[in-house]
């Protein structure tokens, strides 16, 4: 499934991964999250409600451009740079990948409002 991801004045596209967590996120769209820079590699913010996860879908490594769900948060993150150690266990679930425009997620001081919605 294709989604639009709006951050500030920029809108990018992402492709959701086919797993139960991504499908649960898609059922809640549109969703807006206040995100802050974390570790100079990602924007991170908390979702209002947790999403379901399966242990088999969790991983601790990440790639630049991934949109992920971190269950302990419950948090949503966009990795704009691969830097630093893997995330701690129990890991995260990859929700999808930003198709283009990843640079829109860099250079945010304070918070940034990120809205994910179904692609038109």
| Mean pLDDT across all amino acids | 94
Number of helices: 1
Q: Number of folding domains?
A: 1
Described by strand count, sense and barrel closure, the largest sheet is: 8 strands, antiparallel, barrel
CATH class: Mainly Beta
SSE string: EEHEEEEEEE
What do these coordinates show?
This protein is mainly beta and 120 residues long. It has one domain: Cyclophilin (Beta Barrel). The protein is built from one helix and nine strands. The chain has one helix spanning 20-28; strands at 2-7, 10-16, 31-38, 42-46, 58-59, 66-70, 75-79, 92-98, 111-118. It has an eight-stranded antiparallel beta barrel. A hairpin with a 4-residue loop joins strand 6 and strand 7. The radius of gyration is 13 Å and the shape is globular.
In short:
By secondary structure, the chain is mainly β.
Layout of SSEs?
Elements: E1 2-7, E2 10-16, H1 20-28, E3 31-38, E4 42-46, E5 58-59, E6 66-70, E7 75-79, E8 92-98, E9 111-118
Antiparallel strand pairs: 1-2, 1-9, 2-8, 3-4, 3-9, 4-7, 5-8, 6-7, 6-8
Give short descriptive properties of this protein.
single chain; 120 residues; mainly beta; Cyclophilin; eight-stranded antiparallel barrel; 44% strand
